[in-house]
Amino acid sequence: MRYSAIAKKISRRLLRLRYRPIEVFVFHAVSDCFDERRNKRVDWSQREVFESHIRWLKERYEFISLEEAYSKLRRQWCRRQRYAVLTCDDGYASVLEVLPFLEREEVPVTLFVNPKYLDGVSRREGYAEAPQYITREQLWSLHRPWVTVGMHGYEHDDATTQSQQQFQESVDRCIELLTSHPSYIPYFAYTWGRYNDDTQRILEEKGIVPVLTDGEPNYRYRQGIGRKPIDSYYWKRLKFGV
Ligand SMILES: [Zn+2]
Prior knowledge:
The protein is 34% helix and 17% strand. By secondary structure, the protein is of the alpha/beta class. It has a single domain, classed as TIM Barrel.
């Protein structure tokens, strides 16, 4: 093993001794039955299964909001408590059906949405009607303290294939269309977790916290907040820091 790999391993061990990891999870669509016209297998969970997974996690972690997690990750103090955070990407309307469950279980959730799709259309459908997405009206009716709203790009574009100007415009349109939401938070979840130095710099200049999907737990705040998908397709392969 090379010296740098050994040093990395040791520093990770030391980090683990000082800080318990904060696990940030992401899910997508949840419904009673799979509908191939509206869902993709990889980002769908059957509702009862999803709820049992959340209960399982609740027995092992204390769920906190994404903002609380961010502030804990920036502190120098030791962290002994096991924390988890729940996030939901893409703004599928099916999330409305699990919000009452999450509220009962006292699990805060951050919804990362694409503002363009709040108009009821999506690129996947060639901008034809796409009722699987939450509408603007539905999103604005969700001003509850345990639900926060972040950005996922104006449309569901891969940030690494956009020019700097395109990415900047996408972020600006998200800000313009979402800041009036009472529960808006300046956090940006990269689509498919893809990013580069330019996208990171643009978010930093705008004071926005990047949210990744790198499968990693979080010890201290580094270049963004790492997340793990918990849709059924991924569940069996997950490694938890408990
Ligand atoms: Zn997405």
